[in-house]
Amino acid sequence: MKRHLYLVAGWLSLGLGAIGAVLPLLPTVPFVILAAFCFARSSPRLEAWLLTHRTFGPHIVAWRDHGAISRKAKVAASLAFVASIVLALAFAPWPWAMAPVVAAVVTGSWIWTRPER
C-alpha cells in the first residue's frame, strides 16, 4: 500500500512540475526532485529514468549529493518570480497582488542561499 501511495505521489509531483514549466509562480525542479524521492521508494525504473534524464537528472543529482541548485536554475526561478509579480500587480486587486511578492521574497531568499554546482 505504501509503495502505491509513493507511486501516486511521484506522478502527481511530476505532473505539477510539468504544469510549473508553463506557469510562472509554480516551480518545476522542486516537484521533479520530489518525484524522484517518491519514485525511489516505489519504482526504481522511474527513479532511474529521472536520474538519467538529460534535463532534470543533473539537478536531481546535485540536490541529492550537495543540496545544490545551479546558477541557471536560480536565475530562471528569479525571472519566473518577476513575471508573476508583474502579472499580479497588473491584474490582481490589492492586497492579493502582494502574494507573489511575498512568495518571491521568501522562496527566492531560500533558493539563493543554496550552494551551487
Tags for this model:
117 residues, mainly alpha, 6 helices
Question: Can you describe this structure?
Answer:
With 117 residues, the chain is mainly alpha-helical. Helices cover 72% and strands 0% of the residues. It has helices spanning 2-20, 29-40, 44-51, 57-66, 71-91, 99-112. The longest helix has 21 residues, at 71-91. It starts with a helix and ends in a 5-residue tail after the last helix. The relative contact order is 0.12. The model has no long low-confidence stretch (mean pLDDT 90).
SSE order, one letter for each helix or strand: HHHHHH
**Cα-to-Cα separation, first versus last residue:** 37 Å
The helix content, as a percent range, equals over 70%
Oligomer: single chain
Gross geometry: globular
Structural class: mainly alpha
Biggest beta sheet summary:
none
Overall mean pLDDT stands at: 90
- Assess the beta-strand content as a share of residues: under 5%
Rg on CA atoms, Å: 16 Å
Number of DSSP E strands: 0
Count of helices? 6
Low-confidence stretches: none
